[in-house]
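Suppose you are handed a protein chain with no further information: no name, no annotation, nothing but its sequence. What can you learn? This example shows the usual starting point.
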Amino acid sequence: MNIIEYVSYPNEPLTKYNINESDVLVLTALSYIEFPDICSGFGRVTNLGSLARQLLVYTPVFREEKFRDFLVAIASSTRFYNLGVCGYRNEHQEVSDTLQFAAVTVKISDDLWFVSYSGTDGTVVGWKEDFQFAYMEQTSAQKKALEYIIEASKNLDGNFIVSGHSKGGNLAAYASLFAEKYIQDRIIRLYCNDAPGFNEKFNIVSNDGYINMRERIHCFVPQDSIVGRLLRTFPLKHFRVVRSEAPTVFYQHDIFNWQVNSQGSPVILSVLDPITATFMEAVNFMIKTMSHDMRKDFTNYLFDIFQRENIKHLNLKYLGYAPAEFRKSLSELKKLTLG
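A reasonable first move is to predict its three-dimensional structure. Written in structure tokens, the prediction is:
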């Protein structure tokens, strides 16, 4: 079953004593939901099930139908209905700085909170930040992620599970590894789900935060992982391969396609697809051969193409139907990188 089907399966409420890794994937996916402004503060906790029902009534159009299905399942879920939501953020900025950042905190109990960082929302701004991981020491979203966990720690008592998917997994890792030790000591688990890594400027394995947190770090990737193998910096011992029901590489990345079982565990595979793994090793090697200035120039050139074509939102389905002008621009980019 996928995680939406799982939401309706268990018949006992979620608590700090019975939380499992399927629950982790569900709560991670919550960061993709656009919650109302009443959820923005940490001082007020709003019932998740009630929020789901309100969003189903008052949201005329969802970005994707899976988000409606997800909320329908939560609205009638014994396990997730009575959880609380607070600290919702959703920020975009394109003019002076590149920023796409979203996060939400879920109350599991009075002394356990789940901090969920969202991945790229499909906007060009969000995707550009993914590319910036290859050369920047700190992106705007990473700065926001660290500020967020600091704010949460000041306002909430108890411990945290910190998680994120795609870019959100990188943000979860950045916030957790670069927070002060007194915050790290309150993080009982860190999940980076098919998330890109860090460039070599970070030297992660020698970082004090990594050394302090290394026994609590978990990385899930699907069998044909591309995003989660990009700039891989965590040692392989942190990684497990979860089965995705999607037939294509890009849609395997979608956390809503990942498979879990009735016992509350992700369906684990023994190895990554060897062809995809070899391909990503070559990609990462190529990136390492480029200077940071070259990586920056490549990123700026690519996203100048999107700006020139007035493309604000990237959808994987769209790329197959790109206009002739856009395909021509990509040809220009290929010549630039090869020549």
